[in-house]
Sequence to fold (926 residues):
Amino acid sequence: MSLSPASGIGRFYKHSAKIIRFVRHGCANRPFYHIVVMERRKNQHQPVIEQVGSYDPMPNATNERLVALNTERIRYWLGKGAHMSDPAAELLGIAGLLPVHPRTYMNAWRNRKAAAEAAATEAVKSAETA
Amino acid sequence: MLIVRHLRKLNAPQRLQLNVDQTRRALSDANLQYDKDPQPLFTDAETQRLLQSMTQLQLEKVFRKRTVADNSTETKFMTTAQLEKEFLLTIEKAKKLLQMPPVVQIKPDTERVISKDPALKDFDDSKYVFTDISFGLRPSERKVVVRDVDGTLSYAPLETQKRMNQLYFPLDGRKSYTPRMFSDKELLQRCLDEHKYEFVLDRLTVQYEPYETEFHNISAKVFTHLNESKQFDLLRSTRHFGPMAFFYAWHRCIDDLLYDMIRRDYLYNAVQLIALSYKIHKVPVEYGQTLSQLEALQPTPAERALEELRSCLQKPSEKGIEKEIHAAIGKTEQDFTADELSLKFIEQYIGSEHALKKVQLELAVQTLKELNLEKLQLFKGLKKAHGVQAS
Amino acid sequence: MAKLWLMPFMMSNWRASAPQLAYYANAVRTPSAVVFTRNTSFFNKLPAEDIWRGVTAVSNAGKKRGRGKGTGKKVAKDLNRGQTIGLGKSNCIWPGLNAPIIRGNELTHQQKQSENLDREKSIISLRDSMSNFKLMKLNPIDRGWSGSKMPGRSIGPPDAVGEENFNLFDTRVLENKIVFIMKGNMGRKRRYSVLSVTGNKSGLAGFATAKAPEVRTALRKSKNRAGQKLISIDLYENRTVNHDFYTAFGKTKIFVFKKPEGHGLVCHRAIQTICKVIGIQDLYAKIEGSTNLQHIVKAFFIGLMRQKSYEDIANETKLHIVERQMAKNGFTEIKASPLQDLKISENDQIIDFMQFTLGNKIVLRKKKTPPYYVNTKGHYLFECKAEKFRNQSIVRLHKLVNSYT
Fold:
C-alpha cells in the first residue's frame, strides 16, 4: 500500500496543538471527507494521528448525507484539549454531540429567509399573470 | 386385513372428509404468522431440549462436504488422549453449527425523538444520518441517529439502522440490496420446487434479522412448501429443523411431520413432537412422565454422536457379540422397550381429536409395529443362538 | 586537358561500340556531363542459374560443417503450370485465341460457356504437389509437449506378449534423442535413444529406455520394454499419492505433495506425463537441483515405490493418523490406528506428520527478486493512483452480475 493508512501513522508530538478536522479524499467533483485528528500545523494530506470518522457530503439514493463518528475517540481527544475546525464543529453540532454551532442556525435562518422571499416573488408573479 | 377393517371402523367417510378440509384450511394461508410472541416458549429450556433432540445429530450430515474455496486437508499424528479431546471438540462444534436461529415476534418500528429544534428548520436540503462507529459495540448497541431537515434529532428507524450497520460493519454474506432470490417471487418458487430448503433458509438467516417481517414471511412460505412436499429429511440435522418443528406445532399441522418420523422409525422424536404441540397449546395431557421415561432409555443426540466417534477407536476384536447383534438389528433391548412406550403415547394422540390425518398415521403405526415384532423375534433368536444372557 | 580527360576512358572502354564512342566524343565537348559506368559485371557475364546459386547455395567448406541443409528444398512454384492462354476462370470462347476465327463458312463469335468448377481445384492440387515440404498435421489432442516432437506423445499400448495383452495401457514418450558411440571400423555410430513410460491409469506403470538406429524401432523397443517392467503403485482414493514425500536420484531432488481433489497436476511436464499414465490427478511437485530427465523419472518412481501406507506409519510411530478436511468444516477423520497403543504422556513432543513423511527435509523457498522499477518514483506515483481504484473492477462486476444500481 502506497498511501498512508487511514487509521493513522502520523507522528505524535507531545506539546503541539492537535485538531479534529476534515481531510478531503475522493476525486474531482466528488468530495469525500475523513474526520481525523492531526497536528494543527500540518497539511491535510500528511499522515494523520488517528481517523475518528468519515463524512460523505453528497446525498445518497435515499437523500441522506452519511456521517460516521467514533464518538468514544472524539470525546477522548476533546478531553485532551484538541481543537476543532469549524466544519467539523458544525457537523458534531448537527449530530447532537456538541451544542449546535451558531453558523448552522445562521444558515438555517438564511435558507428560510431566501425561501420566504422566493415564495413572495412567486406569489407576486402569479398575481400579475392572473 | 385386520388392520384395514380396524381403520375403516375408525374413520367413517364423512369424518375423513372433514379432516382433510381442516388440514387444507390450516395450510392454505401462505403467510402464517405468530399471533403472539413465541420467544418465551421457544427459548424455554424444555422446548429447546425437545427441539434439539428432534433435530438429531448425524455427523456425516453436519460435517458433509461443501463447496468451499479452501478444500485443503491437514494430516496429523495424534495420541489416543488427544483424539478423545478432539471428539469432544467435534461434538461441541456440531452443536454450535446446529444452533437454531431464534423464533421471535416481529419488532415494531417506533419513532424515538431526542430533541426538536424549530430554529434549525431548513438548515440543509437533505437529512444527516450519524452512525456511532466506536470500537467493540454490538450491532444492536450501535447508535444511529438522524437529523431531519426540520431540525428534529431522532433515533433512526430499524431499516436505516440495519443499512448503516451493514455499510460500516458488513456481515459476511449479507447484501446491501435485497437478493433477487427474495425480491423475485418466481426465483424463490423455483428454489422451493427444487427442494433447496436449506439453502433458502440459510440465506434468509444471513440476510434478515429474526425479528424482521421478511424473515417471518419467507420462512413461513418455505415451511408451508416443505409440509406439502414432505421432504422433512432434507432439514434433519440442520439448524432449521427446530424452528420448522416449532412452526408446525404452533400452527397445528404436525401430522405430516409425525407421519414422516414414524415411517423412518424415529418414534422418540414423534413423541417429542406431540409433547411439544401439547405444551404450546396447553393441552391437558400428561406427557412429562412418558418423556422422562424415554429420556432415561435413550441417549441424547450428542451422546449418540460421541459414541459413534468413539467406536472408530475400538478394534473389531474388542467388540462383543452382543454389540454385533445390535449392529445387525439396529436396535437394543432398551430401544424395544422405548418403542413400546412411545407407540402407546402416539396411539393415544391419534385417538384424540388433535390428530388430523388419522388414517395415514394409524397405517404407519401398524406397519411399524409389525416390523418391530419381526425384529424383536429375530433379536431374541440371535441372542439365544449365540448364548447371550438376557440382561 | 581534353586528352588527359579522355585517356582513362579510352583505356578502359577499348571494346566500347561505335555509338558509345560518339557519346563520349560529345561528352568531351561538355566535360561536366561525364558519367562513369562499368558496363560489364558478373551480372551480365554469368547465367541466371549461377547467380542464383551464389545467393542460395552454401560453399563447399560450409557444406562440410553442415550448413545450409534446408536450402534447395523449397523451390519457387511455377504458377504457369496447368494453365493455358485463353482458358480461365470464366469459360469463354475467344475467336482467334482459343478458337479459329472462321469455322467452315461461319465467323465464330465470342461466347460464354458453362463454368468449369474443377479447374481451380486441380490447379491448386497441382501446385501443392510441386513442393515436397509438408508440415506434419497433428490433432491437438495427439500433440506432445511441443509441436510435432515426440516427447509427451502417446504411442499406444505395448504389444501383446503371448496371451498377455496390454489393452488398458497407454505409453508416452518422455525423451527422444540422438546418441553416438565410437566404433572401431565405423567411427561415430548414431542411434536414437527413447525413454518412455507406460501405465494403465490405475496404479500400474513402468518405464524403460531403448536405443535403435531407427526412431520407430527405438520407440517400439522402449514401449515393449516398459511393458515388461511394471511396478504397482499405491494410490490414495485413486487420485493422488499416499502422502507427501521426498525423493532423490543423483543431484535431482523432488518434493512431492499430496493435494486435495480438484487441485490438478502442478509439476514438471515429465512428472505430469508420468502421473497421467499412472492415474494420479492431484499433486504438487517441486524439483530442486538437476532437471536431467532420466534422473527425474527415476527419482519419482523411487519415491512412489517407497511410499508407506497409513497403517504402516501408524504402527511404526504408534500414533493415530487423522485427517482434517476444511471442506468438511474441519472434521477430523481417523485414517489409521496403531495395532497396539503406546502410552504417551501429555508433555511428549509429537512429531509433525509432514516432517515425518518428508524425512526432515525442507523445500528451499527462494525470495523473489522484485522488478527493477519497484523503487522508482514513477512506480510509487502509479501505485498511489491505482490504490484508489483497487476495488473498482470487483464492484462493477458484482453490480453487473446482481443487476442492482
Summary: The beta strands of chain A are 18-27, 30-39, 50-56, 64-69, 83-84.
